[in-house]
Structure to design on (335 residues):
């Protein structure tokens, strides 16, 4: 077995033992109908989709769903590659790096349009740094191979700076937040709960990715999952339920759902409601089919990382996109 093969095999063992509730391969369960199918699905930050489906009374799936929590989409893609996860949810960035070795064993199967709020570069409340331009010569934490990596690079370019003008410190979201609060970094580029928590400690926004990121969030499935008709059917149904659940929230249930979000993110309900309403106003959360436009958007991101030097060779992202789920998903979304 090659070094890469041994590494992936070891990762599979480690990740499988670490994921709560994950059993054996769902592919072995496909012969008995929907009830015997299990989808192992990733989530980032908190299990938003699981809670959302319960809130909208759409969690009564005829198949099993095992949700596992990760700190980022990059970790989800690692789990998919290692065979410990069937479906990952992420921004456009993690699949780029997961495919960088030229041997991806997964495909992007759908796009979830969403808001790009809480994707920011923040500085501590007592810092004199008020702009991206002032980061020159400073130590900046960021979450590697994620949206934070990408928008920090783009914001630096807009300010006339290059990546080498800062001391870039790759950190996981929780460690980045701790470093910001502890003063070991001058600023932090992050997203989601880490940014919410940073603001709760008084951190100030010095750069926003609101108008930099595309708003495309990708659903990615392992090749093994896509080879199973039963699991393809289940996945199309699950994504449709998520789409309908967001529509349910928008249909006059924002305040009630904000309570669910607030309990998970440890923020005031009014604040969670404001973020929810602002996010849906910026870009309505919807599940969409794979398209040439969405593929081109990710190609732009991959090219930026190539320019940055984070990718060692050019990457053609269309190689790991597929429209195989388009037909059942289109049918389910229109029903």
């Amino acid at each position: 077995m090659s070094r890469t093969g041994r590494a992936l095999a070891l990762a599979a063992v480690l990740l499988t033992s670490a994921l709560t509730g994950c059993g054996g391969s769902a592919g072995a369960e496909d012969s008995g109908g929907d009830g015997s199918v299990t989808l192992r699905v990733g989530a980032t930050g908190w299990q938003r989709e699981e809670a959302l489906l319960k809130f909208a009374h759409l969690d009564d799936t005829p198949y099993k769903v095992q949700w596992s929590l990760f700190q980022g989409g990059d970790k989800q893609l690692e789990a998919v590659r290692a065979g410990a996860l069937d479906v990952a949810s992420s921004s456009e960035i993690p699949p780029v790096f997961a495919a960088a070795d030229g041997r991806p064993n997964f495909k992007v199967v759908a796009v979830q349009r969403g808001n790009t709020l809480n994707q920011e570069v923040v500085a501590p409340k007592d810092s004199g740094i008020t702009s991206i331009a002032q980061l020159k010569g400073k130590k900046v934490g960021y979450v590697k191979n994620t949206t934070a990596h990408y928008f920090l690079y783009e914001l630096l370019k807009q300010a006339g700076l290059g990546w080498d003008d800062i001391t870039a410190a790759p950190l996981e979201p929780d460690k980045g937040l701790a470093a910001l609060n502890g003063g070991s970094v001058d600023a932090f580029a992050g997203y989601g709960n880490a940014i919410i928590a940073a603001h709760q400690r008084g951190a100030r926004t010095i750069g926003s990715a609101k108008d930099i990121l595309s708003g495309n969030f990708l659903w990615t499935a392992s090749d093994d999952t896509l080879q199973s008709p039963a699991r393809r059917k289940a996945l199309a149904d699950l994504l449709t339920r998520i789409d309908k659940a967001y529509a349910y929230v928008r249909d006059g249930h924002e305040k009630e759902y904000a309570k669910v979000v607030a309990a998970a993110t440890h923020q005031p309900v009014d604040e969670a409601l404001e973020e929810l309403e602002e996010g849906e106003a910026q870009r309505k959360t919807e599940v969409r089919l794979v398209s040439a436009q969405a593929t081109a958007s990710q190609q732009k991101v991959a090219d930026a990382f190539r320019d940055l030097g984070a990718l060692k060779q050019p990457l053609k992202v269309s190689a790991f996109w597929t429209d195989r789920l388009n037909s059942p998903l289109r049918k389910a979304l229109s029903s």
The CA atoms of residues 116 and 181 lie 24 Å apart. Residues 229-250 form the longest helix (22 residues). The first strand starts at residue 38 and ends at 44. The chain has two domains: 3-114+214-334, 119-208.
